[in-house]
Amino acid sequence: MIIKIIGSILVFSASSFLGYVLSKDCTRRPFELRMLQSQLQIFENEIAFLSNLLADAFKKVYRSSNCSVSVFFIETEQKLIQNIGLNASEAWESAVRENLKKTSLNKEDEEILVSFGKLLGNSDVEGQIKNIRLTLSQLKLQEQKAEEFKKKNEKMFKTLGVLGGLAIVIILM
Amino acid sequence: MTTKDKTDIIDIGLRNLESDIIRFISQEIREIILSIRADRLRFIEEIRLRADKPLMLHNYLDDWFIDKRGNLTKEIEDLYFVKQDEINKTLELMSGNSIYAYQEEIKSGYLTLKGGHRVGVTGKAVLDGEYIKNIKDISGLNIRISREICGCANNLMTYILKNREEVFNTLIISPPQCGKTTMLRDIARSVSDGIEEFSFKGIKVGIVDERSEIAACHKGVAQNKVGVRTDVLDGCPKALGMVIMLRSMSPKVIVTDEIGNQGDKDAVMRVINAGIKIISTAHGYNISELKSRQEVLSLINEKVFERYIVLSNHDGPGTLEEVVDGTTMRVIFKRQ
Questions:
Q1: Domain-located, residue B330
Q2: CATH code of the domain covering residue B220
Q3: Would you call A39 an interface residue with chain B, using a CB distance cutoff of 8 Å?
Q4: What ipTM score was computed for the predicted complex, to two decimals?
């Protein structure tokens, strides 16, 4: 009997936890997308107005805000400094791909970021700004989608976790 | 300048050669240059990368091909041919992956590395009306090694100083690669720091450094020794920069490189009329050759400059050829 009770508690808490994590992810993603947009704005200022080098600009972006997505910027900067043979687009791509797991961003977001990297650094200021603007508008769309998804699913995941856990417990009892 | 001094001084430059320049050259060429014997690199002045042409190096003696093992040679065998890809990669590395930050410079056909080394760029120009918008398909890079030689202008100073607190308006005339900019930098340093020998106390100097060659600013801070009383306006067009200096920094002397473009004369006249001295340089082999250039000729006719100093390459870069008094056109010094 005791084993049964312990088992059900375990099942229940695991399932609730899962629901909680999923709903947390739902809220984190729009937040991260917003942060990315504001960081790209800072980056735009860095290169359009101050005409800073890529590595310096990225470092400043990283310093200006500290959240899970700033890791892309600082990682790229590190890669550029450490490995002189790497060009900007390669460094950015690998930084995004390696660190995506640390964030709540999904596959689609990843592709947008990687394609942003393709033009990084290798055109004039206007070209850079166009590239940043394009990425910003794409991220904005992603944010809207993520926001809707969050509205629909945030509560659902939580309740589903709790209720689902309960249901399993009841059935197994 | 004695030979011993020269070796000492240039060795200091060699240590920076790797960190300032060679690390930005694409992998394969970098390795070849690093395999050149150190003593051969000592008096290096230029490294030239041309697409599908052999890698070349100039020192003060002559120009040399570099073969695949890093030997300097005159033979046309076993040479290392530069590929266009390598030139592109080099440019990418030199700009810190940030072509946009160097766009204005590339448009004018060069970019300046940390340390003040100028890299000339050729390729196909992309036009926007009459103006160059960009240079694409880069086919040639000329890396010019800039050297800071403190004290190289010491024997010039007697001709430049007017009294304890003033200098003459001076124009340094020299062909390329004869140490014009190096001289100018050292003059700026001496004038700004003061010279005990002549009991000349330092005065305020404003450097307008259009191509970042004199002070070699990195992130706005001068990397070369340009003196304690010196303000540097980096990357600013000369004519504009001189006026800004004049208005805001109250210098006693304005130092700027390579005058002679349209609009320079007006700016120079404004500086002179404000009672500020000017020290500058011009491309040329002698004074009469300068007179063929309209903008400079009118400056000469107005007797703006009180001293003309002509340099040559005769006994190595920076050989003092002659010194002429600009007001009377009397020759003060002539190399024997």
A1: yes
A2: 3.40.50.300
A3: no
A4: 0.71
